Amino acid sequence: MPDSLSVPMEQKMDYLWITLPGNMNMDNYRQVENQIISRLQGRELKVVIDLSEIIYLYSSGIGLLIRVRNHIVRDNGQLWLVNVSEKCADNITTLNLDKILPIFTTVLAFEMSQDTIWEEKLLNDPVKFLCAHQVKDGVCRINLTGKMVTTNDLSSFNTSIYSEEVSSYIFDLTGLEMIDSKGAFCLLEFIHHLKEKDAHCFCYGANTMILELLHLLGIDEFVKNYENEGTALKALENDAHG
Length: 242
What we know:
Layout: E1 9-12, E2 15-19, H1 29-40, E3 46-50, H2 59-74, E4 78-82, H3 86-94, H4 107-117, E5 129-136, E6 139-148, E7 168-179, H5 181-196, E8 200-204, H6 208-216, E9 224-226, H7 229-240
Parallel strand pairs: 2-3, 3-4, 6-7, 7-8, 8-9
Antiparallel strand pairs: 1-2, 5-6
Helix pairs in contact: 1-2
């Protein structure tokens, strides 16, 4: 059972200022996300997330930021990231997420930007579908967010994710809402490719509908679902040494 976390949040002028705790990790990030979402309460808000205590963003943290951003934009709010370290900034820009997650290395840089920013309205819709991936310690972590359906652009889920040097893959499905026939075909083709490589592959966070689809397609025989990233990584480690 993860230790209880308290997420500092305070109102500064027109902004809701949220500081991500430094001890946030793959086992307790859902606590952090739930606290943030409950504070938003469907209101149009100007939200600043302070990353001053975060050294590196793992896939669970990336997924959290994407889902919180989508929640805010759906309610016509705005989100900025401040005090972003060089490592975190590189992580975000490498995944091309800086287009939807405005980043500032200091509070001063953020404050100086506001005169220009308030002249523009963020018109971007929430991300309809996004695949972000990163390789660390020999494991490729793949984050699928939104609706993997025909009407959305699924091009971010592509062959560039494959790597002959990586044989361990973990899918974060906590933000995946639904899949239709096209999305299922893309996923099945991807999984078959990994199977041909004899890759070790697990997923976590899938909702009931996604689990039923994985079972229907027979994917669950190859990709087992776990509750969170920690248990999936443990299973991956055991499988690799089994």
